[in-house]
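Researcher: I'm comparing several assemblies side by side, and this is the next one on my list. It has 1159 residues spread over two chains. Same procedure as the others: predict the full complex and return the structure.
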Amino acid sequence: MGLLSDPNRRRALISLLTRLNAPICVVCYMAGVAWFMGLAFEPFTLRTYMSENAMGSTMVEERFPAGERALATGREFSAHKKKVGGMPVDWLVKTMQARGLEVFTQRFSRTLPFPDENKERYLVKGTNVYGILRAPRAPRTEALVLSAPCTPGDNNNQAVGLLLGLAQYFRNQVYWAKDIIFLVNEHDLIGMQAWLEGYHHTNTTGMDWSPLQGRGGSIQAALSLELSSDVITSLDLVLEGLNGQLPNLDLANLFYAFCQKIGVLCTIQGKLQRNDWDSVSGYSHSVQTMMLMVMKQASGRPWGDHGLFLRYHIEAATIKGINSFRQYKSDTTTIGRLLEGMYRKLNNLLERLHQSYFFYLMPSLSHFVSIGYYMPAFGLLAVILLTLIKSAPSQMSSPGVLSVLTPLVISHLTGVEVAVEHFPVSETEAVVLTAIAIYTAGLALPHNTHRLLSGEGTEQGWKVLKLVAVLYLAVLLGCTALINFSLGFILALTLVPVAAFVTPHVPKILSAFILVILSPACTLLFSVFFFQELQEMPVSFIDGWMLFLSVISQGILDHSLYGSLVYPLIALLVYPCWLLFWNILFWK
Amino acid sequence: MAITMPLSSIIHKQPQKQRDKWPSNDFQEELVIRPLHSGDIYASFQFRTLWETDFMRGNKVSHYRLFPKSLGQVISKFSVRELHISFTQGYWRTMQWGQPFLPSPPGAELWVWFQDSVTDVDGTWKELTNVLSGIFCASLNFIDSTNTVQPSASFKPLGIGNVTDHSFLRYATLPREIVCTENLTPWKKLLPCGSKAGLAVLLKSEKLFHSSFHSQAVHIRPVCQDWQCKTTSWELRQTLNVVFDLHTPGQGKREWSLFKMFSRTLTEACPLASSSKIYIDITDNPQGEQFEVSPATPLLSQAMVLGDRRTFSVYDLTQQITFGTVRSLNLLIRWKSSEDMLRPLLHGERYVAGYGLQTGEIHTLMYNNHPYRSFPVLLLDSVPWYLRLYIHTLTVASKGKDNKPSYIHYQPSKDRVRPHLLEMLVQLPPNSVTEVTVQFERALLKWTEYTPDPNHGFYVGSSVISSLVPSIVAMDTNSTREQPLFSSFFPCKEESSYFVRVYTEPLLVNLPTPDFSMPYNVICLTCTVVAVGYGSLYNLLTRSFQIDEPSPGLAKRIANIIRKMRGVPPL
């Protein structure tokens, strides 16, 4: 403190910082990246453990016997689905009633802003069917949800079959303390969104749905089941939800514990766990697993039907059955027993799941990195921005509000253009290309700005603009990383170097090239290729470009259908911020 | 308006013995069994003790025969006019089971009318709840001013006496109360025969609590002794309602017997009882194709129950012949069931809407399923203070249109002192859903006010919907049954409508909860340190330091003035 209150020493310190600015920035950047890569190294991570006492110490015995019958029900369901050509509502209602549930239906309809080409839908109309198993002597205050999406084609019939099988088995048990809701939702996420909005009587996305007739109180936890074959080799756990929200880690622990107990192979991000953490391949395996989680979380989209529950503070996960060419197979009875065990433990919960972490990354299913461990990686990158701010000259004459405000306003207007969803066109490609066109047009901005400005930009002018831009970026990235670490970190990785080196005095052509490479759109493009690489499904450049276009359209759709915030964040805040740096580069 | 019950309104085919000359002490017991629409079975026990005495006069009552002394003392000490207490585990499923004989909300409910001689009603109420807490082994001592209300219209006295001053009424619910054996045992001890003889033999806790619904209640009220009401006597009614779940998938046929349900059979009536009967509702079975009862009984009885004309088979336990040759009675029923839902004429639902921990909305839905008649209902809502109701957002809508309540009584809450009370008289249009919504804000409690399990959520008691519902008999216009024409034009008064009280589900609401764990403390501590450190650092960074000469002393300043006058440069 004494160091700072002495004006002479203070000046010396600041000059030292200014002089060593470049090396400090480089060291911090390197350290940040190294720290992040170190997170996947097993000795640096923590083993997962069950924090919730109500689920940890109690024993449950799984006795679900009727896997074969569940598969038969699934085949029956598939036959009826084919006959009706969609969701066999009447059959489902009758079947659930025969199993002793209180059955209700909900109709919904939604017109997408433009056709979704991935799923080939535009005008969506559907019906959700759900049955409530009332717990004896319970006052309808708490509920658990088990859902299975009814997808077109031959997919997921086994999941519906198993759901009905479990409903029948659960109905005859006496130990339930919470109502259990068995939900078959049509049109996957759209149906789920309609059901959740109906259940909580909110309307965030302008969807039409009929009100729900039966409820079970506040939902404590939910699992979504996806199963498309009679036998499976492994079960995959999907955690990433809307806007990068994650369920409580105890839910993942519960799944892992039961997989261990029953002897089912379990994966996360489709990657099995390996024991050779000390070898290079073992390490790269866990880096891949963690990077996949980071990429998925950063995308901000729900990666399964569970993703929409998280907004309502309901812990939820999706369990996917995977049938690959491994020798070791598990049948439906085993999966049924696994789910039975999980539900019995969730039924024992006295409070909502809250004991364990909500912010974490998982390099494998048995290890996790908590927020305290991964935040320093981001912190080191943020330090660069702070040194940049600090080393800004402290006595600056005010260069006139106008010269700073104008580029700021214009960049944001461009951002608003990109973000506005009411495109005059209704074709997916047209929408995406319009977005890209506006985005590219924004690059011509410096010239427009200068035409608007009266005189030449001054030396002071760009310095103030840069100070504003760096402050802006620091606040933006800080807030983003708190909510969605992965997104914040990826953006910091690309935008912090931009903020560090841009001045009007660097070589124009080269810097412009680097700036474009590090712009949000190119980051997205690289992420697409990187994601495909991580999934061991590399794509050619043309396919990658097509994927890139579809990712943008999905981003816009996610925003308008489910309220995902990533697209507006990029368009309204990140891109204008980047434009400010672009502006500085072309400052005259 | 009394709740219509088989016991009080049954028109027996046999002449009632000594109806106008009851003894001063009288005990009756009965069990009604009704196979429910959903395939479950509903058993309702009622035990009634009548005693012609006056607790309120100066002379102390000391000789008790059938009436339990513990309750008698409570009545006289606290000047109770009426007392209704119920303990319920589970929620009555109106859509599957229809209306119960005696409705009750999940958890514990207590409402008491005091005599108008009581001066300090709140103090007496507080003492009374503590005493009852001891008598019934329940947490009734948690009833305090924060969950007690004085309803202005919904709870009228059920006994004689025409009191309208609701300052002598107290009403409280404990939706979290869990009911178990420890509450059943003291309840059984109030019976004259205990659980030694009579119908109470069937009350075995291991079976009673292996059910879908369990509710036990005690009602005390003054009733008329004769039709002229010259003298009054005290009535103690102990009721126990239980619904057994007989679900077996894929089978339409159900089978049930006394032994299967209670793991006991009956061998005798309670020797102290003047009447001991079992009624079996066989209304849905006119030709015997739906179910069969064995052993068969020649005794039949008709009664108006909840606006519907029901037929019962009657088994009189005081007659030896009922027990047959094996000297034990084990009733057996076989019947078919259907899975469809019922459409009860009046039905209520409630839920919390919205997400996030700041605000929310309580929705109360009231269904009127009557095809052409509208009727008024009284809605009572008592909401704890920590949900701060925004009463200006209160809306009542049916069929998409605003439905203005004709009477609203609202008492705002006071933090940590009293709950919100909202009472409304709403007209429900025929065949409609009326939705009452009100927004609320979730309060942040002080850290000692959280329960030990704060993440479980906080309970809001059931709302109470009371109404006079047009009866099903009055609806029956195509008159399929044989009856004289002169009797069927105007609906008979007592049959045209009946009183129903419907309780909605309690709500479980999450409040913003701090993380009561070690990391929470660490975060608090770190934040404090960071705040202190940041403050001083920020102060240092933004303050501009300048080297300032210390101000010269007085002598120097005077010297300078002199030098200035002389025109010499200052020191």
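Model: For your comparison table: Chain B touches chain A through 52 residues (CB under 8 Å).
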